[in-house]
Write a structure and sequence with these properties.
With 346 residues, the protein is α+β, with helices and mostly antiparallel strands. The chain has 8 helices and 12 strands.
Length: 346
């Protein structure tokens, strides 16, 4: 039996694909009976949706028109079935995809591949039209598909997803039910080839960038958590991530600062904060250096002076003076003031 794809809108029963082309009308999450009249040009209002679905073997193709919609709970997440890959192309309007680690806004001709690894919310503030292709994740042609990202995006200038979207839209405009079995099988073969190559291209490009971003964030989190360790270095960060030093350097190519510079920056900012903190006025410079991850007061002095133009001792004195001056300023106190009223002879 063919695998059932994730429902396009909120899991309503009317969106479940049938073996034939169908036309559905929805209002909110209450299913309506299917009917066979073509969609009118009237744009769906808020909470309404119209869809047309056709099955070609294990692939399900859906054309969807909807009004303003928000699918942002686990029960109605967009494409959260791990056994189904969802490829979508925006025909008209603007829709948003959001995950805890990423967000994207799609406009006409933009495409997205939802990989089903975790729930992705789908929102639109105005009417939109999209075409969707659901495909089993265990399809033989997708055995090596990377799935490290919750979704990846292809923009309007990506020719292949746009061409596939146009092909899918045209398929749904045809009376596919009347195709001869051989012709239908041939269409299915072409669709499978196009969908497989498009999905693989989007996933490889998108997941590669996603993985690099994830590794960069992991490196920065490790630095933030371990900056007080004087042994923290590019080499130790690379070892923590299971990368070579060269691979770690490549993660930050094109960035403003190297890993070593980021470590120094974090330590310096913490040292400056502690030197200005009146609660640490009794702490020695050596103690501040140790708390901030510097191996010596000399290293801290050099870093602080490069960042502020003054030495740690001068920075501490400036902060103490500012604190004292702030304490000496008289507070605005209106207690005991009297209101004098002068009588005017009439």
């Amino acid at each position: 039996m063919a695998r059932q794809p994730a429902p396009p809108l909120g899991g309503t029963s009317t969106m479940t694909p049938s073996p034939h082309r169908t036309l559905h009308r929805h209002r909110g999450v209450t299913p309506r009976h299917a009917h066979t009249t073509a969609p009118t040009s009237r744009v769906p209002a808020r909470g309404q949706a119209r869809s047309r679905t056709a099955r070609f073997g294990e692939l399900t193709v859906t054309y969807l028109e909807h009004g303003a919609v928000r699918l942002d709970t686990p029960e109605v997440a967009w494409g959260s079935d791990p056994e189904t890959l969802r490829l979508m192309v925006v025909v008209e309007g603007e829709v948003g995809l959001r995950h805890s680690e990423a967000a994207a806004t799609l406009t006409a001709r933009d495409s997205a591949l939802i990989l089903g690894t975790s729930p992705v919310s789908y929102t639109s503030e105005a009417p939109a039209r999209v075409v969707i292709c659901d495909m089993p994740a265990d399809h033989a042609g997708l055995a090596a598909l990377p799935r490290s990202a919750p979704f990846v995006v292809g923009r309007a200038d990506a020719a292949v997803p746009c061409a596939l979207g146009a092909f899918l839209l045209d398929l749904l405009r045809q009376d596919a039910d009347r195709l001869a079995p051989l012709a239908r099988a041939q269409v299915g073969d072409v669709l499978r080839t196009l969908a497989t190559s498009t999905i693989m291209a989007l996933a490889v490009a998108g997941c590669s960038g996603w993985e690099l971003r994830r590794q960069r964030l992991a490196a920065l989190r490790h630095i933030a958590a371990r900056y007080t360790d004087p042994e923290l270095s590019s080499a130790s960060v690379a070892e923590h991530l299971g990368l070579s030093r060269r691979s770690l350097q490549r993660l930050f190519e094109g960035e403003e600062r190297t890993v070593a510079q980021r470590i120094q920056e974090v330590r310096t900012q913490h040292a400056i904060t502690r030197l200005r903190d009146s609660r640490l006025a009794a702490a020695s410079l050596a103690e501040i250096a140790t708390l901030s991850g510097f191996g010596s007061t000399v290293a801290m002095r050099r870093a602080v002076q490069d960042a502020t133009g003054v030495t740690p001792s001068e920075l501490r004195r400036e902060a103490a003076v500012a604190t004292t001056e702030g304490a000496d300023e008289p507070a605005d106190d209106h207690t005991g003031e009297s209101l004098h009223v002068t009588a005017v002879d009439g």
